[in-house]
Amino acid sequence: MKTILHKADTRGFANHGWLQANHSFSFAGWFNPERINFGALRVLNDDVIAPKMGFGTHPHNDMEIITIPLKGVLKHRDNMGDEWIPVVPNEVQVMSAGTGVQHSEINGSNDEYLSLFQIWIIPDKQGVAPRYDQKTFKPEDRQGKLQTLVTSFNDTDTESLKIHQDAKLSRITLAKNTPFTYNLKSDTHGVYIMNISGEIELNNTTINSRDALGVTDTNKFTINALNDSEVLFIEVPMISL
């Protein structure tokens, strides 16, 4: 098993006033040649957006985009007919940009900050029809057990949102001193572990809140919660760019 630790304070950071953005991988004005991607995972942004502010209409193509609100309310509009749809914590949003899509994302609150993860995954096919979807995932369904959020269209899981890539996004809430063993789809996949909150450990490596650990060259691994923790797993094929 190989691992790579990305401490929270080594991420790129941009302060735009209305937006506080942490970049796990090279993005916009932050470039690190050693932090371009983790396999098919291209972007993991940890954003805090001021009330009533957000991203104006802008284009994307040939990318699978996943948004996970953590606090506040996100509102989404696009050129596929979706008009200011709210997306709140315990919901997940997916968008296949495909041949091209225009969308806007704003903080839908007048007084509360919006906190979210935005994730870009490189698709396994280009030129697909653009699409949008979202779904609610109950927090009680990830207490001490893995809750699958997103899988491939080719995956047999019927409860998850779907993207054009052999990836799997999942989430778990662990009580202090609880171990959890994660089983990978194959040894050609890797898992990017983002510790949303708390403190976990893997092979004597401590992963604090907003730290991340990339795991490759294994079929399974076991983490242990040193404190009450919430963990996001992003499993992707370890493709090269």
Automatic annotation (TrEMBL):
SUPFAM superfamilies: RmlC-like cupins
Cofactor(s) of this protein: Fe cation
A GO MF term: metal ion binding
Domain Quercetin 2,3-dioxygenase C-terminal cupin intervals: 150-236
A family per Pfam: Pirin
Keywords: Iron, Metal-binding
Domain Pirin N-terminal span(s) in chain numbering: 11-121
Chain sites annotated for binding Fe cation: H58, H60, H103, E105
Cofactor note: Binds 1 Fe cation per subunit.
Family to which this protein belongs: Belongs to the pirin family.
Protein name stated in the entry: Pirin family protein
Species of origin: Seonamhaeicola algicola
